[in-house]
Protein: tRNA N6-adenosine threonylcarbamoyltransferase
Amino acid sequence: MADVRDEPLVLGIETSCDETGVGVVRGTTLLADAVASSVDEHARFGGVVPEVASRAHLEAMVPTIQRALKEAGVAASDLDGIAVTAGPGLAGALLVGVSAAKAYAYALGKPLYGVNHLASHICVDQLEHGALPEPTMALLVSGGHSSLLLSTDITSDVRPLGATIDDAAGEAFDKIARVLHLGFPGGPVIDRYAREGDPGAIAFPRGLTGPRDAPYDFSFSGLKTAVARWIEAKRAAGEEVPVRDVAASFQEAVVDVLTQKAVRACREEGVDHLMIGGGVAANSRLRALAQERCEKYGIRLRVPRPKLCTDNGAMVAALGAEMVARGRAASDWELPADSSLPVTEPHVPGARKDTAEAGGTAEAEGGGAHGHGHPHGHGHPHGHSHDHDHVHELAKDNLYP
Ligand code: KG4
Ligand code: ZN
Structure:
């Protein structure tokens, strides 16, 4: 067996939303997971304010990197690579992480790996339960996404079977928490209240579960409206809103649909594992119901511990280490922060270019535009991207005052 010291030592940087996450992993072993959150600064606005998040990332970046390296007990010079979330996420927030990763990679002479936030939410489970089976069926549920994904290789092939046609699951939790005046973010607080409520108290609708509905797509907007109307009606009648029962019944409607569709996908695709990732995977009822339903059909459930479900840097480092282990090309210095990076692109080699194999424009969307495995001349930036040049300067000024 190979010495674990041979496994790639990678630092991962995550800044797609309000968490400045820096993780260090060796292969599939978690060494450090440092997170600085600006959530308290957003709470009074009831949602993440992009400019506030970007500013907080700038302030937290260097101290969080230092904390992660110290926690891992490694020197920056020992690293085999630096991975960073290239998207999707808030543009300004992503830019802080991408710029910091470039600055560190350049200064240390290490390869840079731009990775997809969504694929990272799946890959993080390698730190908890070892190598992902291939193929992996993943239910990805976060504040911005809800999808069923099938992946044969988390560094190169992620195929969506279905996704939400309106709100993401986490978004629904956040909105209902707001209607109930429970604060932001909504998921954890609804989870807590629901524990003391009756999930069968109110029959809320289960979106897209009819026989003619797309089997793997989700819809939470009808549910959100139904819950909001129910609460309004109570208030209008001058009655007290049973917050715990509403929370439990709403949560049950969400997790019932999520687990039903995920288990169905596993059975129909012949996959005997189900991975659940993203912030909503921290939900205690989702974890319990998924366990129950997976057991019934002999499906092995893999869900990381709650701290690894919500945004963190270890997940980025985990995917980066997998990129190194599989010999994926490092990203070039043109690596952009792409706020709408498609889930089908786990690896971001560099700027979108007019390449022969893409055969399209520089704006070509979705698959094909980025080949894998071809050298990107790391350390020798080629081409030119006016869009992002100013950002490097801005970030460096702020990182090294
Ligand atoms: O993955 P994540 O940390 O950030 C995004 O990439 O969006 O997910 C954040 C979302 C928020 O909507 C939050 O309310 C939800 O995950 N969340 C939860 C729980 N913890 C976080 N939802 C339900 N139950 C939880 N325990
Ligand atoms: Zn996330």
